[in-house]
Structures are given as C-alpha cells and as structure tokens.
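Whether sequence alone determines local backbone shape is best considered at the level of individual chains. We regard such an encoding as a compact summary of how the chain folds. The sequence in question and its structure tokens are set out directly beneath this paragraph.
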Amino acid sequence: MNVMEKENVRFFARAEGRVQGVGFRFFVQQNALELGLCGWVRNMEDGSVTMEVQGQAEAVEALWNRIWQGNGYIRVSGLVTEEREAADEQNFVIRY
C-alpha cells in the first residue's frame, strides 16, 4: 500500500431534508468530482439519500461542508456518517 492510499478514507452517509427532487444527487456528484473523490450516491424510498464517499480526509470534510451549505433548493436537515473500509473505485456515480 502506498502513502496516498493510506491517506484515503471512506464514509457511508445518509442525508435527510429536502434532498430529493432538487438535483441533490447531481450536486453531490459534481462536488465530489471537483474534490477528487470517488464513490456513489442514491435516492432511498424513505426520501433520504445515501452515499459512500472516498478520498483524502480533507476533501471528504469539504464535501460534507458543501452538502450542509446546499444551494437555493437543497436543504439538509441531517447528515449521519459512518466510516467504512476503503474500496477499489475510480469514479463517482449516481446509482438508480
């Protein structure tokens, strides 16, 4: 394992609030790619959105901050995160 891999972290997260029907998955994907992160994001039947995000810890923290900030349409009322084992991924995708 090289030094860069050791610095990577991976988190599962569940966002609640106004996060469906407002472009939230695309917002997360765009910001994750800008920050050099990989993983996935998916709408859930209960109205929440779940995701797994992997990359450098500072970039993951920056993504959480952007998610909390939202935009004119997105309003996150809760974001629960849980650390996970790193995976072999190269991209950030929207799952359906």
DSSP finds three helices and five strands in the chain. The longest strand covers residues 8-18. Helices lie at 3-7, 24-34, 57-69.
